[in-house]
Amino acid sequence: MTPATPVAGRDRLRIAIQKSGRLAEPARALLASCGLSWRESRDRLFCYGESLPIDLLLVRDDDIPGLIAEGVCDLGIVGRNVLCEQDLSGKVNGSGARFRELQPLGFGGCRLAVAVPDSWTWRDASQLAGKRIATSYPQLLSKWLAEQGIEAQVVLLSGSVEIAPRLGQADAICDLVSSGATLAANQLKPVLTLFESEAVLAGPAAELEDVRGELMELLLRRLDGALRIRRSKLLMFQAPRELLPTLLPLLPDAEAPTVMLIDGEERLALQALCHGALTWQRLEELKRAGARGLMVLPVEGLLA
Ligand code: ATP
Ligand code: ZN
To answer: What would be the CATH architecture of the domain defined by 13-108+199-229?
Structure first.
């Protein structure tokens, strides 16, 4: 049960995901919600697909674009930041794109941001001219600096970028940020966002012609359904019948709601599949407009 089968003529689809780290569990959970199940090898590097001929290879996220480019894996789940950085370095090296983003996956959200010491009075990007900026994303940073016409020194660090200013290795940093807590703990503040990222499904630049192409299509269809379900909620409430024209405009992202008349046709019971975020604020708005017994339910399955 090793992944060492020849690349050409493979009849099973192989997906690379992060072995451990931020994207590992959500990636497996998403694929499982597409009906995939696996048997794990003893070394925990390979998972053999049981429900479908779709196997997993568990690797470091940085290796995923290369594995796709070399044809060792057919698909990968990786941060857009890693994919774009390696795509740019491929272009810089003259080898061109050999992988591409097929589908954003709605988890692992973060941004690549420039952060400066708290003590700086920040005005604009021109303050970075002539400064040393530490990063693990030299291509994305250099591209952005060139676009802005700023000349700065890019200091490449593979990890612990946020302590570089305190160690005197750099004046500012360019790193991934989600909550900003790590930056704050290092007396840094984010001042510019260069790039918005999330986990994406990546695949080869060219289409797969053999049976793997069909498996990929099947998986993409299931992913589309799984992602739509994740974003969807069933909203239910009751209200006096005459309030329907007031309530309907408050449901802009709902599919055609089902409305039933109850209580001798005096009142209505409404259920609607909503695709946007059903925030407390939205529910309170509906309540103010006369809706009662508001209920939001998760959707387990959806077949149009
Ligand atoms: P590996 O051992 O696989 O190389 P890693 O340390 O490079 O792991 P993680 O820290 O697990 O990677 O991050 C994986 C991805 O999670 C990032 O490339 C990015 O897309 C996403 N991510 C989301 N939020 C953050 C964050 N606050 N910091 C870093 N990455 C984040
Ligand atoms: Zn990594």
So the answer is: 3-Layer(aba) Sandwich (3.40)
